[in-house]
Specification:
The complex is a heterodimer of chains A (429) and B (172).
Chain A (H helix, E strand, L loop, with lengths): L4 H10 L9 E5 L2 E5 L4 H11 L9 E5 L8 H17 L3 E4 L4 H7 L8 E4 L13 E4 L2 H10 L1 E5 L3 E7 L8 H12 L8 E5 L1 H4 L3 H9 L8 E3 L4 H10 L9 H4 L10 E6 L6 E3 L7 E3 H4 L6 E4 L1 H4 L2 H11 L9 E4 L4 H10 L1 H7 L3 E2 L20 E4 L15 E4 L2 H10 L15
Parallel strand pairs in A: 2-3, 2-5, 3-4, 5-6, 8-9, 8-11, 9-10, 14-15, 14-17, 15-16, 17-18
Antiparallel strand pairs in A: 1-7, 12-13
Helix pairs in contact in A: 2-5, 6-8, 13-15, 13-16
Chain B lengths: L5 E7 L6 H4 L9 H4 L11 H4 L5 E4 L11 H8 L4 E4 L4 H9 L3 E4 L11 E5 L4 E4 L5 E3 L5 H9 L2 H17 L1
Parallel strand pairs in B: 1-2, 2-3, 3-4
Antiparallel strand pairs in B: 1-5, 5-6, 6-7
Classes of the chains: A alpha/beta (429), B alpha/beta (172).
Amino acid sequence: MAQTLAEKLVARAAGRATVVPGEIVTCRVDLAMVHDSSGPRRLKPMLERLGVGVWDPDRLVVITDHFAPAFDDASAAIQELTRDWVAAAGVRNFHDLQGVCHIVLPERGHLKPGLFVVGGDSHSCTGGAFGCFMFGVGATDMAGVCATGETWIRVPETIRLRWSGRLGRGVAAKDMMLALCARLGMDGGDYQVIQYDGATVTGLPMAERMTLCNMAVELGAQTGLIAPDAVTADYLREAGADFDDEAGELARWQSDPDATYRTTLDFDAGALAPQVAAPHSPANAAPVGEVGPVAVDRAYIGACTGAKLVDLRMAAEVLKGRKVASGTRLLVAPASARAAEQAAAEGTLEILTEAGADILPTGCGACAGYGGALLPEDEVCIASTARNFKGRMGAASSRVYLASPYSVAAAAVTGHIADPRDLLDGAAP
Amino acid sequence: MTENGLIGRAWVFGDNIDTDVLAPGRYMKGPIEAAAPHCLESVDPDFAGRVAPGDFVIGGGNFGLGSSREQAAQVLRILGVAAVIAKSFGGIFYRNAFNLGLLAVICPETGRIDARDRLALDAEAGVLRNLDSGERHACEPVPAHLLALIADGGLIPQLERRFKSDSGKETT
């Protein structure tokens, strides 16, 4: 029976030859990931109540990012609890203050095609870029996984989004996702799987593929998936993942040619303009020219969605030799320590600071509204993050626009929402 | 709870009620009791102070979209909400609700319910009755394994029971 990649991944985890969308199956979990907010501080009391430990400590990865670095007594206590619990539970895969979990997890070689992975964060769908079935769950679900090593799912249908053509200069995966949010709505994914494919997708580096899968949750999907290929294998080799394609793993984790999709939609990347999503929903996206030159108080490059090394490079392309407009602040929180190190080593970080950017510590930072740098009353922000829900980044009266790192940088230097292609050599709006 | 199900008043919200509105990030580092008074405050400042135990939260499409933070469902439980009834739910919120013992029911006709209407819900039969308007609204039946979670009080009590019966079997 022809299967989609999602069905193959679920069937393997369920110990079945095939599965059919709609059936409820119990899956063995290959890997679980939690962060400091959803992780030890919530798991500890539940596991204690059940009188059990982690089913397999080597299959759990703990990453501190939400309250990182600690900014007050309460957040410091959460960090301390996290470190103590990790030691007591025998968890060896602990990455403390190394960046946002969705970036650190693959960076440190934990992901590879074929795995069934749960993450204690909604953007866990990012892992689908590596050909894993990875989705986000809440803390109680995660406690169940830690106690039993398994979880249930309703086998999802697959929605196929096929992209052809080449993204223009100054246009990025983030623009593809904002355009999809506007087109399909935040419930268009209907908690099914979104499979991204086509020549545009296979032509993207892993970091951009991760942006596509990262925002699958903004389409309401359970997860996003991209079939693994040579680009994936190169990334895994560099990250030191335990991955050997001799066993034919790349060929195995593909949708069958005659697999059944709920729908297939085609998109032209070559025709895509930079997108900006107006407050308070990613689905309020439109081409930048239609949004108009809204003045911004703050430009924010951050989060798992928009501050990986490639994202910092996009911002630097626009900012090189320019200064942040007076009256506007540019804040940059690199998505991982490695991204920050590499950006520093290659000179990207210097371009940002020369332009007047303030560099914040790596971590979730202002994106989730947990820590410092909250938006005050009535502040207008443009951000490379994934969500602009009312009050998420601070005061309920603050207004957040979403865009690519190119467009956030363009707003930083002009002081208002602007088409980044006007500031890039060789780009034609 | 009555013989036929739950009776309570409706608090009506629109489409796309997200987890940041239900449980704002800036209250996540504290105890859940400190977050509950801020539940839904940016769309209805009166809600948390005035909702009564047994009341229903009525949503439009995609209720609970966004973060995986289960505090978004937990605050509704703390405030005594008997069930969330919506046209559709964000997938993670839906799982979280049942894991925490909060009933989530899909009803395509929530747009016909007015604020403060008295409702009677029979989740097992999939019927919502509006005691003020007299209308009956069909709901999607809740899957059996999720009704079992509600009956057990959520996932942790269910697992607790399972582990106890497992260890009972081992010793006998």
